[in-house]
Fold these 2 entries.
Entry 1:
Amino acid sequence: MPVTQSFIGGRSIPSTETFPNIDPATGKSIGDVARSGADEVDLAVAAARTIQPEWAKTSPEQRSILLTKMADAVTAHRDELARLECEDTGKPLTQAYADVDVCARYFRYYGHCIETYYGITIPMRDDMHVYTRREPFGVTGHIVAWNYPLQLISRAAATSLAAGNAAVVKPADETPRTAVRLAELIVEVGFPAGVFNVVTGLGAEAGAALTAHPGVDHLGFVGSTEVGSLIAHAAADRVVPTVLELGGKSANVVFADADVDAAVPFLVKSILQNAGQTCSAGSRLIVHRDVHDEVISKMAAAFRKTTIGVGVDDPDLGPLISKKQQGRVRDLVAGISRGTVVTGGTIPEGLGDGSFFAPTLIDGVDPSDEIAQQEVFGPVVVATQFSDDDEAVAIANGTDYALLAAAWTQNLSRGHRMAQQLQAGQVYVNTYGAGGGVELPFGGFRKSGYGREKGFEALDAYTQTKTVVMKL
Ligand code: NAD
């Protein structure tokens, strides 16, 4: 069995202990993963600390050239990376290819941005020259989820490296291979060894060691709200800034004046993409009673047409990440006390030992029900009717999460009102998500997290402001 090993200071580091990398489509092992821990984290942080001051002295132009080369390298290895991502996560091959393309785009985008990222001058008084500098933190630690490994790592690391930090990444236990491949490519294109390091391993071991490490100056976390809270506590103990990208329970609000035929493909994709294992999944459907029956029947028809299978065969829907996740989704659906399961609700038959779950539409839930409040992280959407705009807004804003929201309406004023009233880090009107949305600041309100990744604004999250005051 091939072993995926940590990549630290420009080379692979073997670990004596390993754990299996399970293919979620078959339940079988496709290799072993080095179970690195505190020792490897120490090594990685030391490698990053050693090189970071030198890296920070490179010019924005030099960093830009390397980041752009890395974008080209990702594209040149498109087939290989998509295949690895597809097998590790279970996602359909087309979606894995899209993730590779977005990954390349992050490196290119931040390669471009960093050349136009400046401090400001402040006209305080004629005899004072005042300006700000945006300076790197030093070593940034990144702990990410398994659902979009290439995207999550590149959106954080490209930003961090562009700003002059050095990074240590702990990929999710289930999906280590593309992280390690990115680390190898980063060295191949000419980044100094140690600027980008990957430590494979388990959350409670390698993840916890990275979080607590005194040599880490900034933490970026993408994952569940529960673990995010642990990370924030550990960071607070050391007074280290964090970006927390956490869970969601995002709503599509469909008004009576919506163009239903234009909306339905987005409503479907927003919950079925990556088998619903997307932080920004459109997992709640809040629909005006006048168009309710039409929307439900059109979505149900689309759900029934969905092809389900092994990711590399490129169906519409692949498996969930693990048996554990499959069991969780099944139990949440089985536990509903109100509502009707219009389609799905079960583990589809005849698909072997993979962790599949059928596309599921549950209508008539109460907004307070567990299934309407908790992040299911599966291909499950719950629908609720409303009668007026205020009611729609109250339902949409009525969860602890606030990551994304979308309003579907042909009334321009209503669209703008919704953009103000819907509480979420991103609000869409007559669309949902935006093909990776590299340029769009992304992050949550409330328990969906804090800080922003993506877009120009993310450079602020990965730098600190120094104000310089000079008496003339
Ligand atoms: P998770 O919180 O279980 O794990 C995330 C990462 O944290 C993994 O790398 C894991 O190994 C690590 N980890 C686990 N315990 C740890 C500990 N004690 N100390 C340090 N690290 C630890 O989340 P998951 O199940 O991998 O991912 C699903 C969650 O991620 C969902 O809630 C989803 O919404 C969220 N997510 C959010 C975004 C976003 O940008 N907001 C994007 C993708 C996923």
Note: Residues 143-147, 170, 172-173, 203-204, 207-208, 211, 222-224, 227, 230, 245-248, 279, 375, 377, 403, 449 surround nicotinamide-adenine-dinucleotide (CB under 6 Å).
Entry 2:
Amino acid sequence: MKTISVRVNAEAAGAIRAGQPVIPKDSVRDMSVFGAEGTLLRLEDPNGKYVATGYHGQQNKGAGWVLSRNERETIDREFFSRKIREAADRRNPFFENPDTTAFRVFNGEGDGIGGMTIDHYEGHWMVSWYSEGIYSMRQYVYESLKEMPGVLSVHEKKRFDLKGRYMEQDDFVSGKQPEFPLIVKENGMNFAVDLNDGAMTGIFLDQRDVRKAIRDEYAEGRSVLNTFSYTGAFSVAAAIGGASGTVSVDLAKRSLPKTIEQFAVNGIDYEAQDIVVMDVFDYFRYARRKELEFDLVVLDPPSFARSKKRTFSAAKDYANLLEDVLAITAKGGIVVASTNHAGFGMKKFRTFIDKAFQASGRKYRILKEYRLPEDFRTPRNSPESDYLKVAVIKADS
Ligand code: SAH
């Protein structure tokens, strides 16, 4: 592979030496020095001293990722194989647990290669690619996966701007494709997934611990509202945990059949559950008018969303959204407030929570906080990598 030497500014050199995995866009004056996407970079400090080896790949987080801090290490197929093997070894307890068959095997920069992740779904592996640069190295990964025991099939998701390229390909790469939906297990619950159906698979694996907590600790006897419900995975966990009823609200039409399917594969009568295809902001208005109240509300919006009527950004609008939720949360009720916005941390998130409760004139206690689960390994010195923030809040008064 082609390697070019690039001098980065002193600030970036210092941060990378301290362990930061991302190569910042502003580490150079002119990004053309990074060459084409996928070019290997020998990063040097302003004095020309070696800092790290990385690659050029454009994504929202930066201009590329550090792969090694050892000048003598070569980036080749063996490098990729070794990183993937090490990552898989760290997940041995997951591979050996029959109750959870869907989990992350390789978490980008947390496992040493930023810009790609690999998820395991009941023996079927899915690789997600976040830049053209890392995608250009895909053969190294696919060849490595051929050597891994127990890989039944490989699928891929290209999560970068395709600019019209590769559009003809579907997401299947190799092996024996399963029939979809594929039923995976998570802490004994069933979830239907499809690895060959658009951007998402049907379940967000990073919420595993939260689903378990809802089932085991928070749902029993409670009326549950699940907003931004997608395929209703939180509703399924709540129903299994003994909720008195669930309402799942999502704008996407597909959420209706997908949510029915998730209930059905768990043997839950979906007709006894409410599934509403509606903008949540309209639902809040409807619920207030009907004076509905819920004992447990799950709030897990996308970081950014645009509908016909409005745009939503978690960084700007989370407190207002939570205020809307509180207006229909019963006294003593619980709100599971979640965000995957990488642009702010837990501290800031707590200020949004505080603001919403202040504005509602209600008291609260944060019962517990959740971050990414163990298989979503993150590096030290990379706060943006540790994006998931979940607070379980008791609305006392
Ligand atoms: N909480 C879900 C994941 C949410 S993904 C889970 O754990 O599985 C985000 C979802 O928000 C998508 O399904 C999208 O259709 C939905 N969405 C985005 N804007 C919305 C809006 N204004 N009203 C209702 N749903 C919305």
Note: Residues 265 and 276 are 19 Å apart (CA to CA).
